[in-house]
Amino acid sequence: MKIGIVGGGAAGLFFALFLSSLQPDWHIEVYEKEERAGRKILATGNGHCNILNENPAPECYSDPLAGKYLAICGYETLHRALEEEGIYLQKRKEGIYPLTYSAASLLAYLLDILSSRKVVFFTGFKVIDYVKSANGADVLLNHNTKRHVDFLVVSTGGKSSPKLGSDGSFFSVLSKHGYHIENLVPALSPIKVKEVGLGILKGIRHQSLVSVVSKGRSLYEERGEILFKEDGLSGIVAFNASSFLSWKRLWNSSAVVLDFFPDRTEGEIKKMEMRARSYGGRPLETIVEKNLAAYILKRSEREKKDPVAMLKNLVFHPSSSYGFNDSQVTHGGVVLDDVDLACHSRIEDGVGIIGEALDVDGKCGGYNLTWALATAYLLAKSLKS
Ligand SMILES: Cc1cc2nc3c(=O)[nH]c(=O)nc-3n(C[C@H](O)[C@H](O)[C@H](O)COP(=O)(O)OP(=O)(O)OC[C@H]3O[C@@H](n4cnc5c(N)ncnc54)[C@H](O)[C@@H]3O)c2cc1C
Q1: How far is the centre of ligand 1, averaged over its atoms, from the C-alpha of 12 (Å)?
Q2: Which residue in 164, 111, 173, 167 sits closest to 139, CA to CA?
């Protein structure tokens, strides 16, 4: 059997790893438009690669149907499969990482194994289209190149962080082949806000309870560290909130509310402020960092609100995400209805689709690589000559 993989990112490379182990005699080719495969892997987890999540629960994904795939191939299966390939893992407070704690070492090892198993790489080759026939597909690449394969795997990713390869251009090819593509929207990105004057907050971090509020109801809450940008909110909790806004299409009709002291009542903070006030000086600065205090004071004067109350209820209105360039994953892609539970296409025989190219994206914390690896594993396991 001859297998062609379009896209040498996490899903494509791990698919090649699992398949080359299961079917050592098969010929496997990877077509990657960048000069090097796996560039995005290097950027994951701040260079450490948060490779799996221990509990990839359906509600942590844009489409809870992802849970059906992860029920067949979840953390235990993937952990075992990786260790069988010599990729050992460690558990840290923030999640599951390679034992080396290095995305670069992981990628180097992966490429070494694939090369030792005679997987052929066409790097710098972009797949422009493919022509399906009863006995496989002719893959049309740039540089006037054509390859015939028996089975074609699409692992072209989404549209996020295009400098790392995935520019979303293959979706128009898939659409032409009859696939249904859910609208592409940036997810896991910082949130731009309509409020002005955030410049003095740039770089400040504060633990917060972050809520997404719509029509007076809190729809999503998470605790964590907010990082202020000059025109918006960043940090993992803001990233996750941005995904929620994208999943529920709430960008134009909701507020992001910060409670800087979720474990203290307003009365308790008021007491702290009153005590500080009795010593003179700037009481709010004994509670929060001085630029944050100055921002709160200014806003409270403008909005005629109590500054202490604002520390527990600071409202921001999202204007937009920072776009695909600054987003970690893409919401949207090939709808799950177009593939079965082993990621075989329901539209064309002899085609599989895996990873972020499918319309599934997850929160921060290893959920997205879990999805890429799980779909890669399911497809690899299902292929028989
Ligand atoms: C900065 C950053 C940090 C992240 N950190 C984490 C993390 O720690 N944990 C986690 O779970 N997730 C993380 N993610 C998300 C995770 O990296 C992605 O969800 C995952 O890489 C998706 O894998 P994929 O193979 O489906 O797509 P991609 O990794 O995007 O790979 C797609 C590949 O296909 C290639 N390609 C596209 N079109 C063509 C074509 N026509 N012809 C040939 N090649 C093509 C692209 O160049 C690319 O190499 C992070 C993302 C970013 C941007």
Answers
A1: 9
A2: 173
The tokens of 107 are what?
């990628």
Q: E-strand spans in 113-198?
A: 120-123, 127-133, 136-141, 145-149, 151-154, 181-187, 191-193
CA–CA separation, 168 and 180 (whole Å): 14
Expressed as residue numbers, the domain containing 234 is 191-321
Count of Cβ atoms closer than 10 Å to residue 109 Cβ: 17
> Residues 166-208: pLDDT tens digits?
999 999 999 999 999 999 999 999 999 999 999 999 999 999 9
The rounded Å distance from CA 106 to ligand 1 centre is: 15
Alpha-carbon span 51 to 311, nearest angstrom:
36
**Same domain (yes/no): 69, 142:** yes
Predicted pLDDT of residue 32: 98
Cα angle, residue 172 at apex, residues 171 and 175 outer, rounded to 5°: 85
CATH number for position 119: 3.50.50.60
195 and 297 share a domain?
A: yes
Residue 161 shares a structural domain with residue 283: no
Predicted model pTM: 0.96
Q: Is the CB of 331 under 6 A from ligand 1?
A: no
Mean pLDDT, all residues of the chain: 96
372 in ligand 1 pocket by Cβ < 6 Å?
yes
Do 85 and 21 meet the contact criterion of CB atoms below 8 Å apart?
A: yes
Return the best residue to mutate from 40, 61, 159, 343 for the ligand 1 pocket (most ligand atoms within 8 A of CB): 40
Residues 6+ apart with CB under 8 A from 348: 132, 177, 178
Of 280, 299, 321, the residue that ends a domain is 321
Ranges of residues in the chain with a pLDDT under 50 are none
Measured in Å, residue 246 CA sits from the centre of ligand 1 at 19
Sheet holding 127-133: strands in order across?
127-133, 136-141, 145-149
Q: Tally the domains of the chain.
A: 2
